Design the sequence.
């Protein structure tokens, strides 16, 4: 993909959840390369400082919101922060997620399943409910839900089952949004060296670009309900 071969995102606002580090930070920087204004998000404002500093390299506007997506209060704080800041979101990049501790599948408690679903599924749905109707009204929106290509690892079932739920929710949402130019797709980033992916992962975190941006840069009324594998794409220049 060429660095500027596609439509600029100038004037658009993106919320990237979990953009204090890891994949979300790369996505935030990648969006800024396409002139997109970015709302950085993490559980605390302090955590967001590094990404905000990196974004200063780009001629874009930034905002920051903090909130634990595992709580209703945290989700409300994120929505309110957007309302008080840019006021609306054109691109919702649902990236933040948690992985459960490695544990025998027989011993995983309900609370562990609940935590994974609270952050990885229910918060993603709540943010979509908060921002998608405005996108429909304005006739433009891109929603990207980060999924996983994780193989069958029962010890991590709460995490992987939550991602399966994200996949199905994305398909249902695509049907709901058909014809609105609000496109909703998933991205499988590949196995990357981040805090979550660990030091033995296959790829450096920077390899999530440019693929992670492909479902953002789709043409109007382009594909929706699709799965994009970030590792399928490289910069062409
Ligand atoms: N790394 C991989 O190999 C891999 C593979 C497949 C899919 N993925 C997916 O890619 C996405 C990003 O993964 P990553 O590897 O970049 O993860 P990471 O390094 O662990 O970063 C997680 C991000 O999410 C935020 N976060 C964590 N818990 C949160 C909570 N309760 N509320 C709000 N924000 C929270 C963190 O912010 P703070 O800590 O600052 O609050 C941080 O910015 C996830 O959806 C993950 O499932 C990753």
Sequence:
């Amino acid at each position: 993909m060429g660095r500027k071969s596609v439509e600029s995102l100038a004037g658009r606002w993106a919320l990237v959840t979990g953009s204090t580090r890891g994949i979300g930070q790369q996505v935030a920087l990648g969006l800024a390369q396409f002139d997109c204004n970015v709302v950085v998000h993490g559980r605390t404002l302090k955590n967001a400082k590094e990404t905000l500093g990196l974004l200063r390299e780009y001629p874009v506007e930034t905002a920051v919101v903090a909130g634990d997506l595992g709580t209703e209060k945290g989700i409300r704080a994120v929505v309110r922060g957007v309302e008080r800041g840019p006021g609306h979101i054109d691109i919702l990049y649902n990236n933040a997620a948690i992985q459960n501790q490695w544990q025998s599948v027989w011993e995983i408690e309900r609370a562990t399943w609940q935590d994974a679903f609270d952050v990885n599924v229910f918060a993603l749905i709540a943010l979509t409910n908060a921002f998608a109707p405005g996108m429909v009204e304005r006739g433009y929106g891109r929603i990207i839900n980060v999924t996983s290509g994780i193989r069958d690892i029962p010890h991590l079932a709460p995490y992987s089952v939550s991602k399966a739920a994200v996949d199905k929710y994305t398909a249902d949402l695509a049907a709901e949004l058909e014809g609105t130019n609000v496109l909703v797709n998933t991205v499988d980033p590949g196995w990357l060296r981040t805090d979550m992916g660990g030091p033995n992962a296959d790829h450096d975190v920077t390899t999530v670009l440019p693929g992670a941006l492909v479902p953002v840069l789709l043409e109007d009324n382009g594909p929706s309900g699709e799965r994009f594998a970030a590792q399928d794409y490289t910069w062409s220049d």
